[in-house]
Amino acid sequence: MHRGRIHSIDTFGTVDGPGIRFVLFLQGCALQCRYCHNPDSWDPHVGSVRSVDEIVAEIAPYIEYYKRSGGGITVTGGEPTLQAPFVTELFRACKARWDLHTALDTSGFCDPVHAEALLGVTDLVLLDLKLFGRNGHIGLTGQPNDRILAFAQYLSQRGSRMWIRRVLVPGLTDGEVDLRNTGAFIRQLDGVDRIEVLPFHNMGAYKWKQLGIPYSLQGTAAPGPEQIERAHRLIGPVKLLRTE
Q1: Which strand (E) or helix (H) includes residue 90?
Q2: CB neighbour list of residue 60: distance below 8 Å, 6 or more residues apart
Q3: What's the CATH superfamily of 3-235?
């Protein structure tokens, strides 16, 4: 039985997939996004070590809420594909016991071969397309986005269901050209059910201070409704195959 390194648990999540969800945050991430609200999840060597059975026992008391709301379990991070064997076993257990809806919240910075077994038991992929421009992506996350764009295309080819997400940071991820290019890329994909533009917030800034990491977005304001609407407009219409 695989064991995973856990950052934290939310038993009543409502923003990471449909319905009410059990949200499991894992340790470890290869990206270091400048707006990350959980920089304490980057280190893959810390966190509590838990078995699949232990996590299933955590889910059990709330299962009726998840099932009745059309919810399920979402595994996020950090980056959950770094612990793909553990998440695969957990999703299989949730399917076998409750036929529970499964969602994977990922940056897509992953070798598809490494994630194939996991994708086979994943009902929905929440895929972050942080920036389309390669150089901008390096400046934002410390890594290029070639693997991420290739992962999105792989999901499209294999028929995975996707919600595409963009965190909107004023002055950083809201450029007109990048948003238009992001939309053009998304329109090449099959299986996209929803586009989510998520407003940046700095509620995790205190964690950067605690960890002694300089926080470059201090003083950056959250985008307002008009800025969110503008981003949706610039991304443009996409081929939504199904609505929730």
Answers
A1: helix 84-98
A2: none
A3: Aldolase class I (3.20.20.70)
